[in-house]
Amino acid sequence: MTSPFANPNRPGVPPRLPTPPTGWPIGSYATYEEAQRAVDHLAVEDFTVQDVMIVGVDLMLVERITGKLTWSRVLMTGAASGAWFGLFVGLLLTLFSPEPGVTVGPVLTGLITGVFFGLVFAAVGYGSARGKRDFQSASQLVANRYDVLCHPKSAEKGRDLLARLAMRPVNPSS
């Protein structure tokens, strides 16, 4: 029997194209952590978790401001990211070096070049913004609630298992 949760052409593999969720709701939770706990409980109870999906409802993009951007912060970040990339390229160059062992020349060249280009790209990017975004932030996609959906054939059993979970006290250490 095939599951509506899987790709009909390749069983067990989710579809590649955006596909609306199907199934019957067996639980609804305020946080993703609670929904995960519910699915973990189903797995522990030997429920067929391949028939289950967590669906975020009423999605929101939350952008948390983490700090103010200054020229010094932008240049330091650019130099650091350029240094890492340059170090990586320098180490790759040593792999193809005719001399045995790690030589300092290619690594140092990659590091210096990486720092230079990191500084240039960071300065150009920040300067072109012209003060329109002088802050750093982290974005997160969150939902107002998280529904656990299940294939109709096993929804009743899933609801019963989650009802038993709801009766148990929450253990913060688990």
Automatic annotation (TrEMBL):
Natural source organism: Lentzea pudingi
Segments passing through the bilayer: 74-96, 108-129
**Presence of the UniProt keyword Transmembrane helix in the record:** yes
Domain General stress protein 17M-like, by residue range, is 26-99
What this protein is called in its record is General stress protein 17M-like domain-containing protein
* Protein origin, superkingdom: Bacteria
Q: Name one Pfam family in it.
A: YflT
Annotated spans, Disordered: 1-22
Q: Which UniProt keywords apply?
A: Membrane, Transmembrane, Transmembrane helix
Statement: the UniProt record of this protein carries the keyword Transmembrane: yes
| Stretches of the chain forming a coiled coil according to its record | none
Q: Where is the composition biased (Pro residues)?
A: 11-22
